Amino acid sequence: MSAPAATGQTPLRVGLLGCGTVGAAVAQALSTRPALYAERVGSPIEVCGIAVRNVDAPRELHAGLSGLLTTDASSVVHGADLVVEVMGGIEPAQSLVRLALEQGKPVVTANKQLIAASGQELVEVARQQATSLDYEAAVAAAVPVLRVVRESLAGDRISSITGIVNGSTNFVLDMVARHGLGFAEAVERAGQLGYLEADPTEDLDGLDAAAKIVILARTAWMVDVGLADVHREGIAHLTDDDFEAAASCGQVIKLVASAWASGDPAHPHVEMAVRPVALGADDPLAQVREGRNGVVIEAESAGLVSLFGPGAGGPETASAVLGDLVNAACRLRQ
Amino acid sequence: MSAPAATGQTPLRVGLLGCGTVGAAVAQALSTRPALYAERVGSPIEVCGIAVRNVDAPRELHAGLSGLLTTDASSVVHGADLVVEVMGGIEPAQSLVRLALEQGKPVVTANKQLIAASGQELVEVARQQATSLDYEAAVAAAVPVLRVVRESLAGDRISSITGIVNGSTNFVLDMVARHGLGFAEAVERAGQLGYLEADPTEDLDGLDAAAKIVILARTAWMVDVGLADVHREGIAHLTDDDFEAAASCGQVIKLVASAWASGDPAHPHVEMAVRPVALGADDPLAQVREGRNGVVIEAESAGLVSLFGPGAGGPETASAVLGDLVNAACRLRQ
Description:
The first copy, chain A, is of the alpha/beta class. Chain A folds into two domains: about 150 residues, Rossmann fold, CATH 3.40.50.720; about 170 residues, Dihydrodipicolinate Reductase, domain 2 (2-Layer Sandwich). Helix content of chain A is about 40%, strand content about 20%. In chain A, strand 9 and strand 10 form a beta hairpin. In chain A, helix 5 runs parallel beside helix 6 and helix 8 crosses helix 9. Chain A is globular, with a radius of gyration of 20 Å.
């Protein structure tokens, strides 16, 4: 793609699986900031192939990148030193991620469904092959919560994680609370603005938030939990009366995902829930607006640590993917 | 200290330099959560020595740890696999950190003065010896801002960092803004509660905040900046009239540290300032209360990412030290 930088070193070849909003943003960043990546990694980063379902679908990619599009995803994996998976969904993403890991290649993914379903198994493949699988972007996009839970708090005991991790439903709830829309109208508006999928069940029923809290709980406590362990209640059944009742008490309804540990701190029992909660206006999560996300982590020594930021969006999610990519690339180049 | 855990592996010996509130909290955590550290690191962690100026000074340490106190700091470094420096100040901390690094031993420190003064030089020693120097706790204690700037945003371009990074002055300003105390009275109260040193100049004149914004700027942009480059104005000269004027506009005065990049993104010009700023009540930093800290990072792709948490305190600062310690120990055991 881009000419090797002045370092003269062999470029590190990145294979991109998927070229939707996130994939396109990753490709564009890599091609528009070559000096930054070359400096941070110690050698240039080059996109060597972009696997898509349909090469001719309309995309905003500059010419140098369009020429890399292919429907042959395996060949992209085979030709890469490092693989970025941003296709979403379980298959073929799972097989391709596994293929890359089995070849000892680091993988970075933004795919929460895949990680919630098979993250532990795939991490084990990565471990066996002495490589890595990173997925910061799978939870709360640009909010760096996985790295903070895994690394910053690695010497502490986390007691609970509470957050707004679904930007779509937060957008809907914020439209109702701050802009006075009826609930049905807010859902419609969110759909028009692209905040909700054509089938919004995944968001409105709390399935998306549940996948994220499962990933967070596994990261915090290294426990074997899954989607079926989440006490889950979505927001689809809420009525305008519910919102009015909350507002009359100075409260705001948010879809809150939470996970908490109890019992023996060395082998804690972990519970998880996703449900609409009426929060006091002073609650830090009550102030999370539009499509933003926020997470409050409570730890024994650190106390309360909170993180806020964009929970969706192409460039925002790409930022988290690129952070994982640079860190993985630096490890490869060590 | 503690008996080797069931793993049967050789314990990793941690030498502790300093045993004030942070050092004692680090030692207590290591001795009360041995299973957690053994599991995360892959071998038990053992405190092998604690260097102090006066062995007989009153301290709350359990008996097993008290027996490790010594005034011979070099012997603690020599006997350790990994060194934690929490003495504060420049000397003898600097010589001891350098000694440890020259022996190829990873060092974790909470010492902002040292890192602001000689961080780049010491990191270079660490690099030459293929070891590491980590200092998350030196900036904003339990707020994981250095790791987020360095790793989470490693693939992005940071444009600015704005924060409340001095808990003492924030406590004073919060007492004035929310509890109606006069400024002089709030300073006195903060002193009584241990939020300010006997000589509060370091905090009130913005020197402490300046050291932290220098460390943040270097981390974000890899630039050679120092304390003299910070446009600095403290809060000591503020009067009750200033606070009343701000309050009458619905604003709140905070001591804000900031750093921002301009010009060529590949080789940005970086400016830094510490000064009292009147913030609108809606500003996320306006809502940082008591001794807490908060930092808002703006990046090209990620947009606005904000982090909040305890900016001081023994266990809170120890949490950040222990996070760095576990990560460094894992690298040693790889």
